[in-house]
Amino acid sequence: MTDPIADLLTRIRNAVQAKHESLLVPRSNIKLAILRILKEEGFLAAYVEVEDEKSGTIKVFPRYEEGTREGVIRGLERVSKPSRRRYVRKDQLPRVRNGLGLAILTTPQGVMTDGECRSRGLGGEVICYVW
Fold first, then answer.
1. What distance in Å separates the CA atoms of residue 35 and residue 12, rounded to the nearest whole number?
2. Closest Cα partner for 73 from 28, 14, 25, 3?
3. Which domains can be identified in the chain, with CATH numbers?
4. Beta strand pairing call for 23-26 and 124-130
5. Which of 6, 9, 82, 92 is spaced 20 to 30 Å from 102 by Cα?
6. pLDDT, tens digit, 9 for 90 and up, residues 52-105
């Protein structure tokens, strides 16, 4: 697998579309940081690390709306890819869906949202957009 982050986003997108209760993804620190942000921003209900004989897995629980059972995540888009990296300066930070979505960036101070980058005056590599 050449792009594990794209694999994570695709698994989440497919699970939400199929209305699954949970999904399993291989564990890595960058994936944990992305999932932490998605949970803090209200796109995921929860995630739990599951130990196994290898590096471990993560069990992710997508969040759905109460009455309609429609996924809270409407879209996930991978921006910076292994074949084409996308870096932005602090004055070029993207606005996703006019502020209704968020961009996840990796910076020298860790993985954070576009709003956190604006408040701290940081730029970095744009990982993905979520709305």
1. 10
2. 14
3. 4-62 (3.30.1370.30), 76-130 (3.30.1490.10)
4. unpaired
5. 82
6. 888 899 999 999 998 888 999 999 999 999 999 999 999 999 999 998 999 999
What's the CA angle centered on 73, arms 110 and 13, to 5 degrees?
A: 85
Answer whether 34's CB lies under 8 Å from 76's CB.
Answer: no
Please give the backbone phi and psi of residue 69, each rounded to the nearest 5 degrees, phi first: 60, 30
Q: Which residues of 93-112 are buried (b: 16+ CB within 10 A; e: fewer)?
A: beebeeeebbbbbbeeeebb
Q: Which is more confidently placed, 1 or 127?
A: 127
User: Which ranges constitute the DSSP H helices of 2-131?
Assistant: 4-17, 29-40, 114-120
Q: CA-to-CA distance for 110 and 90, rounded, in angstroms? A: 15
